[in-house]
Structure formats: structure tokens, C-alpha cells
Amino acid sequence: FGSSDEPIISDAVTRKNLLAAAAILHDTTDVVGFPTETVYGLGGSALSDESVRSIYRAKNRPADNPLIVHVSSLSQLKRKILPEDYEIPEIYTPLLAKFWPGPLTILLPVFPSSPLSLLVTANQPTFAVRIPAHPVARALIALSDTPIAAPSANASTRPSPTLASHVYADLQGRIPMILDGGACDVGVESTVVDGLVSPPMLLRPGGISVEDIRKFGGLAWENVVLAKKTAGKMEAVRTPGMKYRHYSPKAKVVLFVNSGTGARVEEYIIKNGLQNKKCALLKSRFFESSPLIQVERDMGTTGADISRNLFAMLREVDEMGVDVIFVEGIDESNEGLAVMNRLSKAAGEIVDGGL
Ligand code: TXA
Ligand code: MG
Question: Which of 2, 188, 259, 344 is 20 to 30 A from 352 via CA?
Fold first, then answer.
């Protein structure tokens, strides 16, 4: 495709599949599922209205929720999207040096001459962009020589996909191709930051912790402001995506916070007469098994493990047809902030043990 940063792919089958996916993105208005280090994405050309419409259509996404643009390199970003004389604001320099490629998304202004489809930005004056770290994602973007708009590749409202089989379960028959790159390493979506406002804002917690943004971002980022967690339907919100029901399995999710060893799960089952229901527990460090709980999964004890396992385990126990999924809440420091942000949205009920 005449890209200047063409990847080297030694495996013939991988190369053939990547070229087929790249051709779909470059030559058609169709979309493909592909792995990134955070979650699987549903990619289409960010330069084409029809391609972006295909994305919204395939996952049934509300059109006022803007998409992240994925590029394979800074040079592709400059060559394909930014005006020739434009310099990326200095406030981003230390963050990009430290975290790109990787799970960090930044906002940049939309220019009058911008080649981006207006549907990508959903009428925001800014667009969101990141360079994914996953080799398959970067090869795909480089080979198609096209900036790729990609939301998470789940059906709207479902948990984000961290395996190719999750994408297949949600979107089979709706998209022509899914590239399988195995399990996503990070497991939660990228962190979205806005350095165009002062003080800068964290719009969505994600794979890069706010502690690391403060630590590595330079002086301005030490005062980064966290966007509020929820917003009412009618409110104008900084991150439109934050107002929708999200990450939800079919079963009811009950999230326990400040609940010690989790004796309150049994108490909850009895109080709500759920003894004859099929209950699952996703536990971490402190919660214990109970004869009243039929399915149990261990999310792990580190923030990185819990992030990696969270969506896959929600889907796995949901597939088993449980009625209720109890989840042990964790501390909101480091990776915990993104985990608890996703869990609060998945939860139909939050039980605060007050401990
Ligand atoms: O890790 C990720 O970010 C994954 C992978 C596929 O890269 N993508 C992802 O996309 O999570 P999505 O569409 O599920 O979430 C995009 C988020 C939404 O919360 C959206 O509102 C916000 O980014 N966003 C996009 N453009 C924005 C803009 N111009 N201003 C404010 N928020 C924006
Ligand atoms: Mg999403």
C-alpha cells in the first residue's frame, strides 16, 4: 500500500491474513475485528463516513459517542491527519515519550482542513488518538496505510472483548473478519486524557494509571483533574461515552465495596431469597467461598491480573447462565481505578459494607 513504515512479518499465514484485513480497511467501507493490547477493536477507516457508519451499525453504538483514532506511528499521524505546520502541544511530550505506543489516548484539535470523518468525532471540536502497542494492530494500521477509527469490538452495552471469541460471540454475521491475536494483555481500555484544557483532565481511567500520569507527565500533569464518574442523560458531558449503560453481562452484577471478607455475600443471598438461584462470585484477595455460591472465579490479587481477567470472567460466568454475579470490589489506587470504573457501570447494584 506504499506505506513508509511497512512492518516486517515473517510468518506467511499471518502476513496473508493481515493483508486481507488491511485490504478491507483500505479498499472497502467494511470493518474488521482486531487485537490491541487493551481490548479488541472494531476498526474502519477514520477518513471515510461510510466506514465509520459501518462501525456504529455493527455494534449498535449511539452516534453521539465519538471514536478513538488509531495510528501506527507519530509519522503516520503527522502525514495523514495533522496540518503540515502543526506541532503537538508540548504538554503531551513527556507522556507520549513514556507511554506511546501503549494504552494512552490523547485529545488533539480538529482542524478545518481535517481529513477525518466528522462522524469519528461526533461533533466534538477535538479528536482522540493513540498508537496501540500490539504488533498485530500496528501492522494492520501500517499495511492499510490508513488511520483506523476503532471502538471496543463488543456489541454496545456488553463487556469489552479481550479474546477473539468474545468478538465472534457479539458480532458474528455482522463483520467480514476478525484477526485473532490471543488474549489482550492489559484487559481494560486505554486511559483518555485531555491536555488542551488547563488544568489537564483525565476523561477515562484505563490501562495507564493516574499515578503514572502524575509521575511521568511533567509539572502540568501533577494537577490533572479527574472527570466525574457519571453524568445524567441530558447533561453535556466531556466524554460522551461515560453516560451510557456499559460492560453489562445478562446476569445481574452485584458489586461489593468496603466489605471485608465478603460474609455479606451470603447475607445478601439469604436476605434476597436467592438460595435457589445460580450465583457466581468473582473474588480477589479477601472474599471466601460459600456453599450458596455455585460458580467461583479468582480474578487475582494484583491490579494488573484483575484488569486482565475482569471482562473475560464476567463473560465466562455469564455464559454459564448464572442469575447473579457477585464481585469483590478492590482498592481504587493504581489499576484499581479503571477496574472499579468498569465494575460500577456493569453493576446493577452496589453494596457498601461500610468497613
Ligand atoms: O483501549 C481502547 O481505547 C480501545 C481499543 C480498541 O483501542 N478503544 C476504546 O474505544 O475503548 P471506545 O470507543 O470503546 O471508547 C472511546 C472513549 C469513549 O469514552 C469516548 O467518549 C471517548 O473515548 N472519546 C473519543 N473521542 C473523544 C473526544 N473527542 N472527546 C472526549 N472523549 C472522546
Ligand atoms: Mg467501549
Answer: 188
pLDDT, residue 64, reads: 86
Output the nine-digit C-alpha cell for 235.
447533561
Residue 150 near ligand 1, beta carbon < 6 Å: yes
Report the residue among 171, 192, 310 best suited for mutation to probe ligand 1: largest number of ligand atoms under 8 A from its CB.
Answer: 192
**Is the shortest distance between the CB of 34 and ligand 1 below 6 Å?**
no
CA distances from 230 to 237, 303, 352 (A): 9, 23, 18
Q: Take residue 177 and report the three cell numbers written for it.
A: 473478519
Give the separation between CA 120 and CA 55, rounded to whole angstroms: 10
Condensed to tens digits (0 to 9), the pLDDT of residues 142-175 reads 999 999 999 999 999 899 999 999 999 999 999 9
**pLDDT, tens digit, 9 for 90 and up, residues 169-217:** 999 999 999 999 999 999 999 999 999 999 999 999 999 999 999 999 9
C-alpha cell at 123: 461533533
In DSSP notation, 27-91 reads HSS--EEE--SSS-EEEEETT-HHHHHHHHHHHT--TTS--EEE-S-HHHHHHHTS-TT----GG
268 C-alpha to ligand 2 centroid (Å): 31
Return the bridge partners of 352, or none: 257
